[in-house]
C-alpha cells in the first residue's frame, strides 16, 4: 500500500475510490511533536493523508508558559512539517490529565486555551480525560467540557453545527481504565443535553470498555500501542465483535516505545482476515473523516467506491 495521487472528485460530498488502487489512511491520534520528520515521510509512503494530534504530556510537567509554546508548536510548526509530504495536520488543545493535579496551573492554562481554539487547524478540545482517576483530574475534566460548551459559537466558523466544540477524550491505562471510563461517562451524563455524544470521541477503548462507550452513543477510538493499549490482532477482534460503526483506529505514536505505522499494521491484519474494502475504507478513512468533518476546518471528504469500469 503506497502513497497515491489525489483522486478525482465526483461531487462536493464524496471522492471516488478505485478498487484497484491502494488505501488512503487518516490517523485520528498521533503525537507528531515526538516524532522525526522522517516519520512523516514514512507515514505518507504508507498512505497517510491526514493526522489529528491531540495535546498531551511532554514527558515532564510544564509551567503555564510552556503550554503556550507547545500550543504554538501544534498549530504553527507541525502543519508545516506534515505539508512537506502532502499530509494535512490538525490538532486539539487542552491541559492533559497527567498534569491536572495542580489546580492553580490548570486555571492559568485553561484561561489561554480559547485563543488557540480559533486557529485554522484546531478541531476542538482534547485529549482531556483522566490519568489516575483523582478528584482533581475529574474537576479539570469537567472544566474542559464546560469550556468546550462556553467557547463554542457556530456562527464563528469553528464548527458548522452542534452545541459545543468537538471533544477528544483520553481514558486511563491498564488497571485504571474501567473505573476511569465509567467516571468519564458519568461526568458527561451530568452535562445532560448540553453534550452531543456524536461530537465526542472517547479514545483508548479496550475489550472491557468498548461496549460501554458505544452503547452510550459516543465515538470510540482504539489505540495500537505495544504496552498499555491494543495490538492489531486485538483491535481487529473488537471490530469483528462490535462492528465498524462510530469506530476509529490510531497509532498515538509518542515519546514511548511506539510506532506511527501501527494503524497501517491493523489495516493489514484486517485485510489478511478477509475484511472487504468497504470495511477497511470505513474504519481507516471514512469514519475519522465523518467525525472530524463536523468541523468545517477539516478539509477531506468521505470517499465512495467504484470499480474501474463502473
Provide an overview of this structure:
The chain is of the alpha/beta class and 310 residues long. It has a single domain (26-300), classed as TIM Barrel (Alpha-Beta Barrel). It is 38% helix and 15% strand. The protein has 9 helices and 10 strands. Strands 2-3-4-5-6-7-8-9 form an 8-stranded parallel beta sheet, with helices on both faces. Strands 1-10 form a two-stranded parallel sheet. Strand 4 (88-93), helix 3 and strand 5 (122-129) form a beta-alpha-beta unit. Helix 3 packs parallel to helix 4, helix 4 (135-150) packs across helix 5 (177-190) and helix 7 (232-242) packs across helix 8 (262-272). The longest helix has 20 residues, at 64-83. The radius of gyration is 18 Å and the shape is globular. 44% of the residues are buried.
Amino acid at each position: 500500500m503506497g502513497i497515491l495521487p489525489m483522486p478525482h472528485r465526483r461531487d462536493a460530498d464524496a471522492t471516488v475510490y478505485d478498487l484497484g488502487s491502494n488505501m488512503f489512511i487518516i490517523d485520528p491520534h498521533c503525537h507528531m511533536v515526538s516524532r522525526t520528520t522522517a516519520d512523516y515521510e514514512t507515514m505518507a509512503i504508507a498512505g497517510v493523508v491526514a493526522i489529528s494530534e491531540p495535546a498531551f504530556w511532554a514527558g515532564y510537567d510544564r509551567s503555564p508558559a510552556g503550554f503556550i509554546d507547545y500550543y504554538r508548536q501544534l498549530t504553527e510548526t507541525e502543519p508545516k512539517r506534515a505539508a512537506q509530504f502532502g499530509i494535512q495536520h490538525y490538532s486539539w488543545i487542552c491541559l492533559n490529565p497527567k498534569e491536572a493535579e495542580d489546580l492553580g496551573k490548570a486555571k492559568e492554562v485553561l484561561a489561554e486555551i480559547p485563543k488557540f481554539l480559533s486557529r485554522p487547524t484546531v478541531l476542538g478540545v482534547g485529549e482531556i480525560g483522566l490519568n489516575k482517576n483523582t478528584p482533581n483530574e475529574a474537576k479539570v475534566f469537567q472544566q474542559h467540557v464546560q469550556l468546550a460548551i462556553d467557547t463554542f459559537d457556530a456562527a464563528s466558523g469553528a464548527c458548522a453545527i452542534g452545541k459545543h466544540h468537538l471533544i477528544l477524550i483520553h481514558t486511563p491505562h491498564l488497571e485504571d481504565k474501567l473505573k476511569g471510563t465509567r467516571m468519564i461517562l458519568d461526568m458527561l451524563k451530568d452535562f445532560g443535553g448540553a453534550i452531543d455524544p456524536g461530537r465526542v470521541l472517547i479514545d483508548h477503548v479496550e475489550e472491557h470498555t468498548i461496549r460501554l462507550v458505544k452503547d452510550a452513543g459516543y465515538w470510540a477510538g482504539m489505540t495500537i500501542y505495544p504496552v498499555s493499549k491494543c495490538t492489531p490482532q486485538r483491535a481487529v477482534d473488537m471490530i469483528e465483535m462490535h462492528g465498524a460503526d462510530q469506530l476509529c483506529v490510531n497509532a498515538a505514536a509518542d515519546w514511548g516505545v511506539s510506532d506511527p505505522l501501527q494503524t497501517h499494521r491493523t489495516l493489514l491484519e484486517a485485510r489478511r482476515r478477509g475484511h472487504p474494502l468497504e470495511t477497511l475504507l470505513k474504519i481507516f478513512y471514512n469514519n475519522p473523516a465523518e467525525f472530524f468533518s463536523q468541523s468545517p476546518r477539516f478539509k477531506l471528504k468521505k470517499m465512495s467506491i467504484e470499480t474501474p469500469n463502473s
